[in-house]
Amino acid sequence: MSIILSSTSQGLLWAIMAIGVYLTFRILDIADLTAEGSFPLGAAVCAQLLVNGWSPLWATLAAMLAGVLAGWVSGLLHTVLKIPALLTGILTMTALYSINLRIMGKANVNIQMNDTLITWLTDTGLSKNNAVLVLGIIAVTIVITILYLFFNTEFGLSIRATGNNEEMSRANGIKTGVMRVIGYMLSNGLIALSGALMMQNNGYADINMGIGTIVIGLASIIIGEVIFPKITLGKRLVMIVIGAIIYRLIIAAVLELGVAPTDLKLFSAIILTICLSAPLVRTKLLAFILPSKERKV
Amino acid sequence: MEKVLELKKVHKTFEVGTPNENHVLKGIDLTIHQGDFVTIIGGNGAGKSTLLNIIAGNFPVDEGTISLKGQEVTKKKMEARSKEIGRVFQDPRTGTATGLTIEENLALALRRGKHKRLFKMGIRKTEKEFFKEQLKRLELNLENRLKSEVGLLSGGQRQALTLLMATLVTPQLLLLDEHTAALDPKTSASVLALTNQVVAESQLTTFMITHNMEDALKYGNRLIMLHDGKIVVDVAREEKADLSVSDLLTLFHKNSGESLTDDSLLLA
Ligand SMILES: Nc1ncnc2c1ncn2[C@@H]1O[C@H](COP(=O)(O)OP(=O)(O)OP(=O)(O)O)[C@@H](O)[C@H]1O
Ligand SMILES: [Mg+2]
């Protein structure tokens, strides 16, 4: 029971990062690795500000803004300097490693003595686990609501069109370069926000906490897509959250089975590989089960 | 009559400075007036699509100027020119955002060339009725499928939808690049008929590339033949109306000094 509860609350915090990854990876059709740097960036900024006495709310928002800036840099590298997306992400993520170290001043910043969004909630009498759960639900609800509304505005529609068909978008007067940069900024803002929340959950920021971020994000997205391949944007965002929770549950199960925590990254990669191959496996299975005439896929 | 489009001495060379250097447009002078329906033919690689692309702003010209409605746009990007220009492409996948729904595509088309605002709903309720009415004109039953993803439509349906999108906001200039070439003969004929109808209804100034000489003669009031980066035939009005395929071949021979008999592609 407690494993389910903690997986759910952790999943909610990770889900915000996964939604960020979704914005670039699926909506803009860009493979952006900036996440590996912007996630710990959010944690670093938030931790350092908390240590310096900032209010948890402002520290968290500032962390998000730092992510937006990181996304802006990646966006410009990609759209103005025309550097391929994959390389852009690698460049920013590498640069961010140094920047994060500078922000933190050392490899690890402890905030256990400081007020956080979570201690605000535990102060009202909630247990730590429940506090994280409540925080996760509030944060995820706000993020999904805002994104849902945003992507149904003229502006949001233009961003979706840009990722879907650049030529058509330009022929309809959409400034696709600007749309991409804004997508990068939104995406990394969310990823940094997730980093800041996760850091408050962990009680410390660590320079290496970004490693594997992209794998977790993709796994959450793809688990959701395997369950429901074709759904509208609003439902998709909810499915990513469910995907992120399922992913945490799988990880918890793997740990229960006695896998060493140091082997977790290996298992993350294996889980993602399985998810990625699922559509193919499904097609093959259907082909095998159904006679060729009834086949739909 | 008002000039809609004016090209002066336009040159375009691809891959400058490489062994593949390719001088595609060699000094094009062309003026199109309000209400003209120009068909354009020419062999493969003659530069027809390139001509359309430089008008739309896909890439810059090397020399010469382009004016739309008396305004020079030579240096303007495609996004900036889109306000004036409606387009249907050869590939049915190019003209629509296939991952978006029919109504979302139409909503984007309705805002062609306009500033996209953050606090305005992408699709307003009142617009849906308008979209339905417009879709009815296509007679493809799409008016009941506003929420269908465009990726689910057939090639012909998509081209008809793209044509509707290109003309939803009346364009100063409609550019059609072999927009029925990827369709089967029957669908192709019906999309062409629809095109002709839409163009006639709104008196659209139109520039249509085709590979089919019969179509080039049948539609429009002016015919241009492009050969080796130059305009070699340009006939309009009565002169065009009286033209037959064999007249056209003779004219081509006279003006270009080359024979067309072996250029089977042009006749296809
Ligand atoms: N973006 C580009 N980059 C490099 N070369 C190009 C580009 N676009 C066209 N070309 C070249 O320019 C020449 C003319 O091409 P274009 O597409 O204009 O011909 P076309 O008359 O439309 O032919 P078709 O009837 O086959 O469509 C071709 O040799 C083509 O390879
Ligand atoms: Mg062409």
TrEMBL record, chain A:
<feature type="transmembrane region" description="Helical">
    <location>
        <begin position="237"/>
        <end position="260"/>
    </location>
</feature>
<feature type="transmembrane region" description="Helical">
    <location>
        <begin position="12"/>
        <end position="31"/>
    </location>
</feature>
<dbReference type="GO" id="GO:0005886">
    <property type="term" value="C:plasma membrane"/>
</dbReference>
<dbReference type="GO" id="GO:0022857">
    <property type="term" value="F:transmembrane transporter activity"/>
</dbReference>
<keyword id="KW-1133">Transmembrane helix</keyword>
<feature type="transmembrane region" description="Helical">
    <location>
        <begin position="57"/>
        <end position="77"/>
    </location>
</feature>
<keyword id="KW-0812">Transmembrane</keyword>
<dbReference type="InterPro" id="IPR001851">
    <property type="entry name" value="ABC_transp_permease"/>
</dbReference>
<feature type="transmembrane region" description="Helical">
    <location>
        <begin position="84"/>
        <end position="103"/>
    </location>
</feature>
<feature type="transmembrane region" description="Helical">
    <location>
        <begin position="178"/>
        <end position="197"/>
    </location>
</feature>
<feature type="transmembrane region" description="Helical">
    <location>
        <begin position="266"/>
        <end position="290"/>
    </location>
</feature>
<feature type="transmembrane region" description="Helical">
    <location>
        <begin position="209"/>
        <end position="228"/>
    </location>
</feature>
<keyword id="KW-1003">Cell membrane</keyword>
<protein>
    <submittedName>
        <fullName>Putative ABC transport system permease protein</fullName>
    </submittedName>
</protein>
<dbReference type="Pfam" id="PF02653">
    <property type="entry name" value="BPD_transp_2"/>
</dbReference>
<keyword id="KW-0472">Membrane</keyword>
<feature type="transmembrane region" description="Helical">
    <location>
        <begin position="131"/>
        <end position="151"/>
    </location>
</feature>
UniProtKB/TrEMBL annotation, chain B:
<dbReference type="Pfam" id="PF00005">
    <property type="entry name" value="ABC_tran"/>
</dbReference>
<keyword id="KW-1003">Cell membrane</keyword>
<dbReference type="GO" id="GO:0005886">
    <property type="term" value="C:plasma membrane"/>
</dbReference>
<keyword id="KW-0547">Nucleotide-binding</keyword>
<protein>
    <submittedName>
        <fullName>Putative ABC transport system ATP-binding protein</fullName>
    </submittedName>
</protein>
<dbReference type="InterPro" id="IPR003593">
    <property type="entry name" value="AAA+_ATPase"/>
</dbReference>
<dbReference type="InterPro" id="IPR027417">
    <property type="entry name" value="P-loop_NTPase"/>
</dbReference>
<keyword id="KW-0472">Membrane</keyword>
<dbReference type="InterPro" id="IPR003439">
    <property type="entry name" value="ABC_transporter-like_ATP-bd"/>
</dbReference>
<dbReference type="GO" id="GO:0016887">
    <property type="term" value="F:ATP hydrolysis activity"/>
</dbReference>
<keyword id="KW-0813">Transport</keyword>
<keyword id="KW-0067">ATP-binding</keyword>
<dbReference type="InterPro" id="IPR050166">
    <property type="entry name" value="ABC_transporter_ATP-bind"/>
</dbReference>
<feature type="domain" description="ABC transporter">
    <location>
        <begin position="5"/>
        <end position="253"/>
    </location>
</feature>
<dbReference type="GO" id="GO:0005524">
    <property type="term" value="F:ATP binding"/>
</dbReference>
<dbReference type="InterPro" id="IPR017871">
    <property type="entry name" value="ABC_transporter-like_CS"/>
</dbReference>
